[in-house]
Design brief:
Distance between the termini: 41 Å
Strand content: 5-15%
Radius of gyration: 24 Å
Helix content: 40-55%
Number of helices: 19
Structural class: alpha+beta
Bound molecules: zinc ion
Number of strands: 15
Largest sheet: 5 strands, antiparallel
């Protein structure tokens, strides 16, 4: 039995089961890490750190830890604020294995964290900078010293996480066999496709590819828009962190870098949903969600689904495709010029179609019950497409389209909010401000910069006031709130690029700490990462493959103030951060999705830059 079991555990069967499960996960993860260490840049020092972590894991408290923090650890020069959930008058930081005390301090005054309803204190460990493994010690109410789980300080703490979260997209691939290792694999799926009656065409359609969108096996152009766009932005803005990632995917070793090769798998599929007139169908899914089975066992036909009436394609999907293909034209040029040109052409044709058909919205036709991704306002998608096309081509047509299209955002003072799959106006504004093209309105660029800085300052202020350090307000705990946290970090990193302010990047990192353990659940919401990670995501392969641990590198949607799924039955409404269950049935609290992982990859690239 582990030291500390009596002190911290209830020692019920359930607790023991959870402990053993986590221990198995930890050992499996270390094995996976050691296997992959050679392909991770800068990983040479890791095996020692992980062995040290496992040693200290055995001799310090695992559960009931009085403090929560990023379970992957901290960069040496970063802020390190731990949240204490049982009161303490003092704290000290000690090297593991009974090492020397390196810091003594006093926790901050008690703070009521409104999102969780918790009364907490914050211990600031930022001055501890020497790489190593440490524990935090605090006073217990019974005058016994309480020890936290061990934590690491190192320059490499987030490199594996970046690799794993990006590689999770390979695991989401549709239409080819997938093998992540350790049993996470499946043969090619969804190879039989057909046009649905709502598409305006009929018969078989020989296309395949794309990423399974989330816990289901559907593929949706609209949600692919922000996901693929965010990842391509990662390539452009945080290039050094991702350009040499070796993802161990089928294309590895080819002329296109792995990061772009993985994105291309989805991009190519998006392009297959573009009709000859330039418009893009909304989605490719079965008519209903299948059971919790592996993708190759899904018996339903994968349909290209349209709006059900001419022109059959939808504006938001088409404009999203235009924006993403325009970015792709910039990114792939150095590696595959003809592909980049074909992306540019596809983007222009899509933009022309969407401009001619600006209000064709989508809702599920009768008999179709998969994700709708309906959006009644496609002005922001069109604006994003215009901005990206202008940035790519420099053509006046697109600059003019942007500058006339942006008018509707003027009444709100070009307010910057947090982007989402149905709100791309921020992506549009930032693209214009970052384009560095001749002819840009300096007044407009300044206004976008200032608005971005104002919004970033507010997020940074939230982080300072929140007990768990994230940047979210109470109203941000919506379906997919962890994606909101990721996108707020993206927002902060972009704001820093537009107007340098180290506080923005620091606040962005606080959301990473929140997602990886500094939360009221002491939980890492990324599968396979951290001492106590999400175990039961709403994700069909994780539920159907017979392996205890879920597919790795996937971000759970997280707390939802208004959950609507079977796991929510019997939950008493409470503070929003508490509205979460790590259960497979909890699709409104624990599903994974490509558009939530994408800003996490962006954020991890940001902290690894
Ligand atoms: Zn599939």
């Amino acid at each position: 039995m582990l030291d500390g079991d009596h002190e911290f555990g209830d020692f019920t069967d359930g607790w023991l089961c959870g402990t053993l499960k986590r221990r198995i996960v930890f050992v499996m993860r270390r094995r996976e890490f050691l296997k992959n260490a050679a392909v991770c840049a800068g990983a040479a020092a890791w095996p020692g750190a992980w062995l040290a972590a496992e040693r200290s894991f055995a001799e310090t408290a695992e559960d009931g830890t009085p403090a929560v923090f990023n379970q992957l650890g901290y960069l040496p020069d970063a802020a390190k604020r731990f949240t204490l959930r049982s009161p303490s008058k003092t704290f000290s930081v000690r090297a593991v294995n009974g090492g020397a005390v390196v810091l003594k301090g006093t926790p901050g005054a008690p703070l009521e964290d409104t999102a969780s309803g918790d009364r907490v204190q914050i211990c600031d460990l930022s001055s501890v900078r020497t790489p190593g493994m440490y524990v935090l010690e605090t006073d217990g109410s019974d005058s016994k010293t309480k020890k936290s789980a061990p934590f690491e300080i190192s320059n490499d703490v987030y490199r594996h996480a970046l690799w794993l979260t990006m590689r999770s997209y390979y695991g989401q691939r549709c239409g080819c066999s997938v093998d992540l290792g350790d049993g996470y694999s499946h043969p090619a799926c969804h190879l039989d496709a057909a046009f649905h009656a709502t598409s305006g065409k009929s018969g078989a359609y020989k296309n395949h590819g794309g990423w399974h969108d989330a816990g289901d096996y559907g593929r949706y152009v609209v949600n692919s828009g922000i996901s693929t766009g965010t990842l391509l932005w990662t390539w452009e803005m945080l290039h050094d962190a991702v350009s040499k990632l070796e993802l161990k995917i089928p294309e590895s070793g080819g002329k296109t870098p792995d990061f772009l090769a993985e994105i291309r798998w989805n991009l190519d599929w998006m392009l297959t949903l573009q009709d000859t007139d330039g418009g893009a169908w909304h989605k490719q899914t079965s008519e209903n969600f299948c059971a919790f089975i592996m993708p190759q066992d899904d018996p339903m036909v994968s349909y290209v689904i349209g709006t059900g009436a001419a022109p059959y394609k939808s504006t938001c999907a088409t404009a999203d495709l235009a924006a993403v293909a325009a970015i792709a034209a910039r990114c792939y040029g150095p590696y595959d010029d003809s592909y980049a040109k074909s992306c540019a052409e596809a983007a222009k044709r899509a933009f022309a179609w969407a401009s001619k058909n600006p209000n064709v919205t989508f809702e599920n036709p009768a008999g179709v019950r998969t994700g709708g991704y309906g959006d009644n306002d496609c002005r922001d998608e069109l604006l994003w497409a215009a901005a990206e096309l202008w940035r790519t081509t420099g053509d006046e047509e697109y600059r003019k389209a942007f500058e006339s299209g942006v008018g509707y955002l003027r009444s709100s003072g070009l307010a910057i909010k947090t982007p989402g799959w149905n709100d791309l106006s921020e992506m549009a504004l930032w693209t214009y401000a970052m384009a560095e093209r001749k002819g840009a309105s300096s007044e407009l660029v300044s206004a976008i910069r200032e608005s971005s800085a104002r919004a970033a300052a507010e997020l940074a202020r939230n982080s300072g006031e929140n007990g768990y350090g994230n940047t979210m307000s109470r109203g941000d705990y919506v379906w997919g709130s962890n994606g909101v946290a990721g996108n707020q970090s993206l927002q902060l990193i972009v704001a820093d690029r537009l107007q340098k302010n180290p506080a923005y990047r620091a606040a962005a990192a606080e959301n990473l700490h929140y997602l990886l353990g500094r939360n009221c659940w002491d939980l890492s919401w990324v599968t396979g990462l951290g001492r106590n990670a999400c175990m039961h995501p709403h994700h069909r392969p994780s539920g159907a493959d017979g392996i205890v641990t879920p597919w790795p590198g996937l971000l759970s949607g997280g707390p939802n103030a208004h959950p609507a799924d079977p796991a929510a039955k019997g939950m008493t409404p409470g503070p929003p951060m508490k509205m979460y269950r790590d259960e497979q049935a909890a699709y409104s609290m624990n599903e994974i999705a490509i558009n939530w992982n994408a800003p996490l990859v962006f954020l991890l690239a940001g902290v690894n830059s």
